[in-house]
Design a protein that fits this description.
The complex is a heterodimer of chains A (110) and B (115). Chain A is mainly β and 110 residues long. Chain A is built from no helices and 11 strands. Classes of the chains: A mainly beta (110), B mainly beta (115).
């Protein structure tokens, strides 16, 4: 069954703006991860946040995790055309796998 | 060198045929996976192997048979292909052991079209 659900499904922003997407999940987790998928390509790992962490940064990416609300957010600051992609959250619920949502499609307009 | 490579990248075939997709990773990881991505981009796990041992078989029809000859390879054979099998199939590997998944490294995907 689907564990993570991303919101919104699609997002269109101007270059230089920030993009925020959210992920909700259903069960207790060990960690939550975010991935990017460019059109026609495989998924690429962006960032991992453990269940005992609340916020993590990596370059222009900021991830938050609220285990009480079972939700996470991914913020991309100062977006670029190259950030156009689908972004997926994935949860590790101690069950030998990562469970993915259907992703948020981000389009960055020049 | 490509870390996780899968072949073929594209596969077009008729209903009822049998086909295979191969995957190899050169990362030294113990765990490998097959995921299926449908037309709505939803990614669903199919199988997971840890050091050649099947760990996860996620209610996949038995027409799908994974095989892991060694921990660097995980192949997927599909019998009697159906229209609903059309999707992109991704192979992935991770350094995770036990119930710890770790970061996944994905191949570029194999797009299967069943006519």
């Amino acid at each position: 069954s689907q564990q993570g659900e991303e919101d919104p499904q699609a997002l269109s922003i101007q270059e230089g703006e920030n993009a925020t997407m959210n992920c909700s999940y259903k069960t207790s987790i060990n960690n939550l991860q975010w991935y990017r998928q460019n059109s026609g390509r495989g998924l690429v790992h962006l960032i991992l946040i453990r269940s005992n962490e609340r916020e993590k940064h990596s370059g222009r990416l900021r991830v938050t995790l609220d285990t009480s609300k079972k939700s996470s957010s991914l913020l991309i600051t100062a977006s670029r055309a190259a950030d156009t992609a689908s972004y997926f959250c994935a949860t590790d619920a101690y069950d030998y796998k990562l469970s993915f949502g259907a992703g948020t499609t981000v389009t960055v307009r020049a | 060198d490509t870390a996780v490579s899968q072949t073929p990248k594209y596969l077009v075939t008729q209903m009822g045929n049998d086909k295979s997709i191969k995957c190899e990773q050169n990362l030294g990881h113990d765990t490998m996976y097959w995921y299926k991505q449908d037309s709505k981009k939803f990614l669903k796990i199919m199988f997971s192997y840890n050091n050649k041992e099947l760990i996860i078989n996620e209610t996949v029809p038995n027409r799908f048979s994974p095989k892991s000859p060694d921990k660097a390879h995980l192949n997927l054979h599909i019998n009697s292909l159906e229209l609903g099998d059309s999707a992109v199939y991704f192979c992935a590997s991770s350094p995770g052991t036990g119930s710890w998944s770790g970061e996944l490294f994905f191949g570029e995907g194999s797009r299967l079209t069943v006519l």
